[in-house]
Amino acid sequence: MKAVVLVGGFGTRLRPLTLSTPKQMLPVVDRPMIEHVVAGLARHGVDEVVLSLGYRPDAFTDAYPDGRCAGVRLRYAVEPEPLDTAGAIRFAADAAGLDETFVVVNGDVFTDLDVSALWRRHHEVGAEATIALTPVDDPSRYGVVPTDPEGRVLGFVEKPPRDEAPTNWINAGTYVFEPSVLARIPEGRKVSVERETFPALVADGTLWAVRSDAYWVDAGTPETYLQIQLDLIDGRRGPAVPGVAPTARVAPSATVDHSVVMSGAEIGADARLVDAVVSPGAVIGAGAVVDRSIVGPGARIGEGAVVTGLTIVGAGEEVPAGARSEGQRIPEPV
Fold first, then answer.
1. Residue ranges in the chain whose pLDDT is less than 50
2. What is the pTM of this model?
3. Which SS3 state, helix, strand or coil, does residue 293 take?
4. Of 208, 233, 258, which residue constitutes the final position of a domain?
5. Residue 148's CATH number
6. Start-to-end C-alpha separation, the chain
7. Would you list the DSSP string of 174-242?
């Protein structure tokens, strides 16, 4: 089974962490996000992944020089310019010569979705494309997908106002496509799968959906990037994983409460972490507090500094001793 994984975006919602690192290469409990995503596909029989690349493709090729990730063979398709979702899918599929049914996933979605069940249903109904759906409280950020009782998609409403959404079942960013879908995507320009390709499939009655209430998080925001890591140490996705890496150095008097401390990080005496993520090589000074915030790789929090309110400290940045930061991005966007 083959899959196209979309990883070409700029990750602007996660800046400054993504100023020099693609979103899918950010660490999630000491493994790049992309490794978690590919490992999930491998559990359902995917043995080859085509990465649709745009921003900083070298970050991926340098990280996996042998062309393997989580035991899965990788192929790379680097967009010459941003082509949007459908354009990126066609470009990657054409580059890899895909001529059989294949899976498509958004590379920033963490999910326990049963891809095998999606694949089976796709073939049972003879769909041209089948999409996974997940329920959310507020569908206004997503593509809303009403269906008939059998699962045939009746419409595709992209990001409707909350009070006008016909359902709370949304596009979960995992699809099964027949190669014929590629012919529907014009070459050489930006094409949105949500706004152009899916509505055309709906019009022809060939788009189906499978509902699932499995674990699902769009990890593209600071809140959700933090959430997916705390969920892993809480055991919300299988056995709980350790929050503190073996190579991290934590002073005996420091407090690490429901937090992730990655490889090579240092936590000073009397420092306190609560619902925090400390990336590889970061240093938290003595007496400092990091509360519900993210400290990027190699960043330093000075002695006695207080970092709260979903502050994001970028790679290699420093919060001075005694400083207070609440809800900031360091450095601030320009």
1. none
2. 0.91
3. coil
4. 233
5. 3.90.550.10
6. 43
7. EEEE-THHHHTS-SSS---IIIIIHHHHHHTT-EEEEE--S-EEE--SHHHHHHHHHHHHHTTTSSPPP
